[in-house]
Every structure is written in structure tokens, then in C-alpha cells.
Give the backbone structure.
Amino acid sequence: MPISNDVRLGDNTRIFQPDLVNLYGCTIGDETKVGAFVEVQRGCSIGARCKISSHSFLCEGVVIEDEVFIGHGVMFINDPFPRATTAEGRLQDTADWAVVPTRVRHRASIGSNATIMSGITIGANALVGAGAVVTHDVPDHAIVTGVPARVVGDVRHRSD
């Protein structure tokens, strides 16, 4: 079942193709929209009035505050040193690693195909450019682009 029974969905949350998502153990706020081929893992929290575009991956430990935009194919990472096995060669399980949490603050926007490393906070109203690899915290209102992502502007100074 693509949407597990332990998922908490807010009022008027819209999942356009429920057979094409993988949601389990997460919370999704009121009026949020979720596209096709999105995975949201246990312990992930998404706020109200967000848009999660298709093909995005939100792993355990990710907190998305209200009114956040997540573009197509955005990937979050919750383990900075992933391994399949322990030093002894045994397959790892949940006891062998710890989730490193990540937070995306109110009204931030993340462009398509961005990768967000674990332990990052993306500031309120910040803008992450498409394809960026975010390896450090992003200040409130900052525009970041590149690999690794660097501050290139301030959203309060852009012309619409």
C-alpha cells in the first residue's frame, strides 16, 4: 500500500496519484500538495500549504516547515557516512547508525534536483537553486547555487 495507515494527513491535503507515492510513518500538514513518485519516510514532518513536487525523496529526520516549495527530484540525506555493512561485514540495521536531522524553515524554496546533506538548516524564505548541493546551513533570505552551494544573493533584493 503506497500510503501506510500510520501516515497523518492534514485537512485538504492533496496527493494527486496516491498509487504512485510511498508514504509511511510521516505527518503532512493541511492543504499540502504531494506529486507522483514521492517518498516520505517515517519520522518526517511536512508543514501546511507546502508543495512537494514529483520524484522527491524526504528521508527520516527531515522537518519541512509551513509554505515550503520542494522542486522535482529533490533528494535529502540523513546519514553523512552511509555504509551497507558494519566493520565486521554484517549488514547494517537501524542500531548501527543514527539519523542526522535536517530542517527547512518557513517559506523556503528548493529547486529541482537539489541535494540536501544531513544536519543542514535551510533558513526562512531562502532559495536553493536547481541542481545545488547544500553542504552547509543556508541563512534566512539567502539565494544559494552551485556545487557546493554558495550564497549568491538575497531574495529581498531580487526583482520579480
